[in-house]
Amino acid sequence: MSTPFLSVRDLTVDFHTEDGVVHAVDGLSFDVEKGTTLGIVGESGSGKSVTNLTVLGLHNPETTKISGEIVLDGQQLIGAPSSTMEKLRGNKVAMIFQDPLTALSPYHTIGKQIGEVYRKHTGASRAQSRARAIEMLTRVGIPQPKIRVDDYPHQFSGGMRQRAMIAMALVCDPDLLIADEPTTALDVTVQAQILDLLKELQDQTGASIILITHDLGVVANTAHNVLVMYAGRAVERGTVKEVLQEPRHPYTWGLLASMPRLGAPVDVPLRPVRGTPPSLINVPPGCPFHPRCDYTQLAGPEICRSERPELSPHRGHGDACYLTLAQKREIHK
Amino acid sequence: MFPFIIRRTLGAAVTLLIIAAVTFFLFFAVPGDPARLACGKVCPPELLEQARHNLGLDQPLFAQFVAWLVGIFAGREYEGLGHCPAPCLGYSFVNRAPVFETILDRLPLTVSLTIGAMIVFFTFGVATGIVAALRQGKPLDKIASVSSLIGASVQIYFVGTLAMYFFVYQNPIFQQPRYTPFTENPLAWAGGLLLPWLVLAIIFTANYTRMTRSTMVEQLSEDYVRTARAKGMSGRSVVMRFALRGTLTPIVTILGVDLGTLIGGAIITETTFGLQGIGQLSIRSVVNSDLPMLMATVLVAAGAIVFFNIIVDILYAVIDPRVRLG
Q: What are the protein's UniProt keywords (chain A) (predicted)?
């Protein structure tokens, strides 16, 4: 196996707030291979976004404590000087945000916002970067790019703004694209278009993508691998097929059961995961999911409450739960 | 843009007309007789009648107002004083000085005072606000907030008088405040007004520091500022090009109000430093029941506010492309 393009090891991120220390990410490890898409799934506050802001070094250094390793293409990013991170951002690693209306500056034209990334990282002239912006707008399917390049974001529709955002992220041909809920703020019909666009661009450029979402449907359509996060930890990891067809962790079961599917009987109600996500200041000891889990009796209530399960096996399809494989298969049939 | 300016100018004219009318009729609603003041201490009835006639006060109020208004556009004839060409604001009740010329004479000082002070308090206030926002909770931020609180609390007659005592009389660091026209000698112009500028700035800076700091803190947590950082923009360009742009709107708003107020006359400042500007003129015309002079100073003050309001509205559209002038 080749060394992965992005390798995250034992990543721990703590925020200091007035209420206490928030353990946003706790001992997270994952890899992203070149040209593949990793879907990171979890509820709000499960640490998905924080993990990726950390990869880009966009956390607040004053209040955040980070440990572990983030190695991108052989380069250690944790503790890297800010000038290194600045050169990396928008260039080798780019990010797409959830809400393209607030994520684009209302004060600058679309063309300027795309062009300045290109200028910054390649030293191109104004005219060159403008031409590049028009080229990028064409690639992401904006009609009349030569005219729209001078528009402001408020003159774009929601879907077009996200396309512009993608154009901005891809302008320097990044090797890794982090998309943080790129379709959450969009219409369902536009969602599919944007996801198709991302896939198409990945085929063209061979970039790796980390797709952060709470929507397993999005993952099923776009990702190669999946990482399910709960309370800042990975609870299940595997290929899309493995995780969606043979899910092993009770939390993944809960997520799947709470999701509507075409073809499912209409009279079977959706089952939400009971309880609420834990506070990340006082994370439950043992398995963080045990207060919401229906299977603690079966797995052994003592161990669920006291000892933290590790993701196992280390490679391939793994999950962090004390149920035996046979029990998991029996329950999820 | 052009239709907007036309429409706002017409609106401004109506506003000024209403303000002029209200001022005019209020003047006669309060007790006091300008004719008796003009006539002097010992004043026989026939002289009083004569003075009243000379000042035009024997006419009906409405006719007086119309005559004043027409004078602005068409000029006016005065018995004994001759023709007063348009724009005619009349003659002072007190010393018969032509009002329009007096205003023109006083305005440069007030404008100089305003512009100089503005440059100091605007740059200093905004800069301190940015630094405070970037150093949130750090000593520099605390120093900025404490000193702006002090600045906002002190009064100009207090600081101004102290400054005059210590820095002009005790240790002549600053010149005695005086006005030299800029065109005559720019150095003397700046030297003579430096102390009033700085003292005015102490009081006004605080507002700008606090407004810049709070808006900047908000802006720095905006999504698009995060995007700018995610694109690899340098810290400096993130602050100056992205975050600062969003903080300009509220700052420009208070700047418009402050400039309008200052042009209308920094009454206390002018009095403290013994400068003969619009502020001094307005307060003296109130005390002397000098109606024509009073009307003119009110017009200048109101005109300045209305003017800067229009400018601020135009600036909104310049700063933020989402704003449409309509």
A: ATP-binding, Cell membrane, Membrane, Nucleotide-binding, Transport
